[in-house]
Hints:
Elements: H1 5-8, E1 13-16, E2 19-22, H2 36-48, H3 50-59, H4 62-88, H5 92-97, H6 99-122
Antiparallel strand pairs: 1-2
Helix pairs in contact: 2-3, 2-4, 4-6
Amino acid sequence: MEKTIFEQMGGTYTLQVDYYLPNFSLPAEGNKTIGIWGQRHLWYLKKYRGVTYYSLLTSGKLNSYLYELDKSCNNAHNRMIKDYVEKDGVTEKFKAENTLEWVRRMNNIRSRVEEIVFRDFIYV
């Protein structure tokens, strides 16, 4: 019997009950920890971008994609918070003088930065 295209390319089959099933395996991908930004983007991909999600999953690139996105989001988040703190004058001296106002301003900065990260990185 003539070999199938799959067999000609080096693929093999395994007999499962009455059927021969192809032996597929995904490429080995490093086990990297995905942070909160990567997890939120994963949720978004599953819910709204199914084709992209399954494409990344079946190509074996999903974990590394989410890891890199998470790193980028963390770097942007930290950099923007630092920039806004300097711009708004929220210093340690201000913290010592008026703690409640400092907390309010820091929470406001954090909220603004999170909205920017969501808009520019997560929900795209």
